[in-house]
Design brief:
Distance between the termini of chain A: 142 Å
Number of strands of chain A: 0
Helix content of chain A: over 70%
Radius of gyration of chain B: 17 Å
Number of domains of chain B: 1
Structural class of chain A: mainly alpha
Oligomer: heterodimer
Strand content of chain B: under 5%
Largest sheet of chain B: none
Number of strands of chain B: 0
Chain lengths: 181, 175
Amino acid sequence: MNHCPIETELVLYAAGELPDARRRDLQEHLAGCDACRRDVRSLGRGFEALEALSREPALRPEAAARFERRLGQAVTAAENAAPARPAVIRLAWQFRWVAAAAAVLVVGFLAWRTIEPARPAPAQTPREVIEEISVALDLLEFDDQQAQAVARPAPAAWDDDALDEIKIQLEQIASEESFRS
Amino acid sequence: MSPSAGDSEAPRLLVARYGPRVFGLHMRLVGKRDAAEDLTQETLLRALAGLKTYRPEGKFQAWLFRIAINVARDWIRRRPHEPASGLDPEGEPVATKSAVASADADLLGRERTAKVEQALARLPVADREILSLRFYGELSFKEIARATGEPLGTVLARAHRALRKLGELLPTDEP
């Protein structure tokens, strides 16, 4: 670094706020530049002069007390100005921790139900198995009857001739039976 | 640690921890003890009100001193004909009025302290703002640029000029 840095950079250097890399470059330059070195020393003396002042000048006790009192009043006024909550909300607010705990329990229960692995059904007694099979068979039988009822064509209307014919046949069967016996 | 809005101790903490420094800044900028006290109270009140929305993204002190500068600027703007000299009209150096200042003065010399105060008082308000924020707020130059709303280059150029003037007050070891 041969050219002189701008004065603002010297302020940052004197204040210790220059980034490391830049600071090293500037130090190299300062080693060979009287003018910049004098400038930096002058800035350093300026910072040093400031230290002649008290950084925390004492407040008069009455002023400090007045500040505290005034700030305290401002806090109270802000609290009083806060809108009052309705009774229900106030009550809910009082029990907010109970409500929060209940909410956590509900969420936890739902999560547990969701992620719980399928469990094997409990073992049935022989009687339960038989009852279950019986019910299943009844259902199957019922279904079969329904299916047959649907498949079978509706019987034609009975006429008198057909009934007579059936009677005749039944009488023949009966006579043959009695003959055999 | 900065005070928080819900902290019932906030008023006491603000006054005890930051009151003297804020007062020092205002004293340096307006030069009148009564006015500096009023401005300190106004700064702390505004800070207290702002604590509700304050987000600790940077230094609390930088935020507080930004409020202080705005409060002082408002005061100066309302009084265009009153010179904000930075010196107590009684003529007595401000720092030497306190016990702490007396201790400093013993160390560095009352004369030097008075000279520094007078030199500061002669600086333009904008330059005084920068040195006061640096000294009382202990802000970096970047934070000062943010607090004053000035470009960093402008702040550094002013600081360069003001620091060199103050530096001339101290004896030099060079021929």
